[in-house]
Amino acid sequence: MKQSLDSWQGRWRSPAFWLAVFFGSGLMRPAPGTWGSLAALLAGYGMIAAGATLPLFVFAIVLVTLLGTLAINRIEVSSGIHDAPEIVIDEVAGMWIAMVPCYFLPASPYLFVTAFILFRIFDILKPWPIGWLDQKVGGGFGVMIDDIVAGIFAVIGIGILSAFLL
After folding, report:
1. What pLDDT score was predicted for residue 16?
2. Helix axis angle, 32-49 to 54-79, nearest 10°
3. Whole-number pLDDT of residue 166
4. How far apart (Å, rounded) are the C-alpha atoms in residues 40 and 79?
């Protein structure tokens, strides 16, 4: 069972904490990863609906991955806790990757829901190599990488589904 950040005294004052919990979505219970993924879906949809180009969306994914890795590293050093359940910035990166097909396929609510469902399935079940990465890679990047790969798996799943349904 993952250890919570509840015992970390400096959490409320830390910008790294607020980024890592994606501005509070990771504090929701139960299933903070699902709440973080839902918040990421809404934020990603907002960017796409506002007209963010694919290069800008990819830049946002890279930026959240880099900043998330740094924030998680800082939290781990300050708190001594690795991959606390409240940390959901990794879900944000993975969910946004899962949403990339929204730039290539006809936009529909079903596409966004499919991206969300497939991402959560891969993030929870952690098929190889996702589970292996989750266990073997440490630090902030270790927290981020399994969700990045889960997002890539979701993209592949959307591609397969769209090939059969179109």
Report:
1. 94
2. 150
3. 58
4. 25
